[in-house]
Design goal:
Shape: globular
Order of helices and strands: EEEHEEEEHHHEHEHEEHHEEEEEEEEHEE
Strand order of the largest sheet: 7-8-9-3-10-11
CATH superfamily of the largest domain: P-loop containing nucleotide triphosphate hydrolases
CATH topology of the largest domain: Rossmann fold
Number of helices: 9
Distance between the termini: 30 Å
Radius of gyration: 23 Å
Largest sheet: 6 strands, mixed
Strand content: 35-45%
Structural class: alpha+beta
CATH class of the largest domain: Alpha Beta
Number of domains: 2
CATH architecture of the largest domain: 3-Layer(aba) Sandwich
Length: 351
């Protein structure tokens, strides 16, 4: 089960032109600024926007090949889609919504409903089978949309900002549910998101699209360490620290302690932005900065007028400082430094 996209399409002022491969069992997160072409990519894969040139294959079979005059319509592609606003039919029951794709493909009504109820049971919302979508919470509606997408047994599952419609309070819990349910899907998964926390918790790799072109692709750690544009540095170039919060301190699996300003106890993700990190040669004993971690400089990479400094240690980090700061500290790979961050500069999310 693989997906290959090597195509071009023009939609208004947007020119999408890129090549992308997604491997069996992989979840690829697609990120990029508004208007970059993320949703256009998903629409092309789903068959909702035909290519102007190029080829899309699923499991080695072409579903859109301009040169060979091959185009498989969306209803016949082995693709399931979870839209950003879920797009559940308000006049249908939950079970009828989930059964819709099967019915559209000619499955008898009774069989389609039985399959739909099976998926609702698997996703833990069987008790809502007879309800209308308007009576569901955001998280419940998302699970219905996911059930509808996978009920047709697709080879490719596309998710277009599936958490964007949720409020902040419910997003973390729904993200955990989504991670659990996506783990059981064996096909190719492509997730469009604007949130690096989604990419960290859900994806195997990330692909960044800017102005219709593929800027960067790789694991989150690879992209964070070597951002190739200012957008990537600002969005993905963050330090994501996983651990458990207790009494205002997040403790990582390696025993590093991160003092935070405000977070509830429990498993959490801390976001430390590279430009919030100051580097010093020695720990300051009288500083108001609550966090100071010792580490070894592994890499120094210029990025425009600033420099990204990779640091290993009990808490591996990437810092972004000015060239003047690097020169003043005379930093070289192998040097020992202390990374300092204010507790108020760290964002924390429930994991």
């Amino acid at each position: 089960m693989s997906l290959s996209f090597a195509g071009r399409l023009q939609r208004g002022s947007l020119s999408l032109d890129l090549e992308l491969e997604v491997q069996p069992g992989e979840l690829l997160a697609v990120l990029g600024p508004n208007g970059a072409g993320k949703s256009s990519l998903l629409r092309a894969i789903a068959g909702l926007s035909p290519l102007d040139d190029g080829r899309i294959t699923i499991d080695g079979t072409a579903v859109d090949d301009v040169a060979a005059a091959v185009f498989v319509g969306p209803e016949a592609r082995p693709v399931g889609v979870v839209f950003q606003d879920y797009l559940l039919f308000p006049h249908m029951t939950v079970a009828e919504n989930v059964a819709f794709g099967l019915r559209a493909r000619g499955t008898p009504h009774s069989v389609a409903l039985a399959t739909a109820r099976g998926w609702l049971e698997q996703l833990g919302i069987a008790e809502y089978a007879g309800e209308r979508p308007g009576r569901l919470s955001g998280g419940q509606a998302q699970r219905v949309a996911l059930a509808r997408a996978v009920a047709t047994d697709p080879r490719v599952l596309l998710l277009d900002e599936p958490l964007a419609a949720l409020d902040v309070a419910s997003r973390a819990a729904v993200r955990r549910d989504l991670r659990h349910h996506l783990a059981s899907f064996e096909g190719v998964r492509v997730l469009v998101t604007h949130d690096p926390v989604d990419a960290y918790t859900l994806a195997d790799r990330v692909a960044v699209i800017e102005a219709g072109r593929l800027t960067q692709v790789g694991t989150l750690a690879e992209v964070t360490a070597h951002p190739r544009s200012r957008y990537v540095a600002d969005l993905l170039g963050v330090n994501l620290v996983e651990g458990s919060v207790h009494n205002g301190v997040l403790t990582t699996g390696l025993g590093a302690h991160v003092v935070i300003a405000d977070a509830v106890d429990g498993p959490s993700l801390a976001v430390i932005r590279p430009h919030s990190i100051s580097l010093v040669r020695a720990a300051a004993v009288d500083s108001s900065v609550r966090n100071q971690w010792a580490g070894t400089v592994t890499e120094i990479s210029p990025l425009g007028s600033r420099v990204r400094v990779g640091i290993t240690g009990q808490l591996p980090l990437t810092a972004e400082v000015t060239t003047a700061a690097v020169d003043a500290l005379s930093l070289r790979p192998g040097d020992t430094v202390f990374a300092a961050v204010k507790a108020t500069d760290i964002e924390v999310y429930p994991a």
